[in-house]
Amino acid sequence: MAAPKTTPLPLPSRNPLPLSAGQEQQVRDLYYKRVRGYCADEIRDFASCALNRTISATWACRAPRLSMNKCMIGHATQEEQDAAREEWFASRDKRIEEREAKERRKVEQEKFHREWWGLPQVEGRGEEGGTGTEER
Q1: Any idea what DSSP says for residue 5?
Q2: CA–CA–CA angle 121, 123, 129 (5° rounding)
Q3: 75 and 26 in contact (C-beta within 8 Å)?
Q4: C-beta separation of 64 from 45 below 8 A
């Protein structure tokens, strides 16, 4: 008797790799930025209508607000979240390079600072004389 063929269940997202809370926040920020980019004209229209208004913006700017919300809801999809996640993964190497370059600049600046002020070179932090915050 042949076993029936089973098809794998579809994944809820194309990128099922779990991310830390901070990384998820970065993905969400990208997602929101993308959606706001699609609806920039509607957001601008609503903002210009609501400028210098308080309570009256609720009814005076109803049409631009509904237009803005419709646009944002229309673009806030799972596919857009997946695209933002893919963009985040694609730019991962760039962020790593930027972080390493920033660390190199920091080390160079510390070295220049020590040379400029004639301070002794410290090889390791946290060792005796390393941080200058230990008790005397």
Answers
A1: P
A2: 75
A3: no
A4: yes
2 — pLDDT class (breaks 50, 70, 90)? low
Evaluate if residue 98 carries a pLDDT over 80: yes
- Decide: residue 85, CB within 10 A, 0-12 exposed, 13-18 middle, 19+ buried: buried
What letters, b where the CB count within 10 A reaches 16 and e where it falls short, cover 92-113?
eeeeeeeeeeeeeeeeeeeeee
Give yes or no for residue 94 having a pLDDT over 60: yes
- How far from each other are the two terminal CA atoms of the chain, in whole angstroms? 83
In angstroms, the Cα distances linking 131 to 5, 58, 106, 114 are 65, 57, 16, 13
**Token pair of 133, please?**
């915050």
Q: How far apart are CA 27 and CA 97, in angstroms?
A: 19
pLDDT of residue 4: 57
Name the DSSP letter for residue 120. P
Once rounded to an integer, what is the mean pLDDT over residues 24-50? Answer: 95
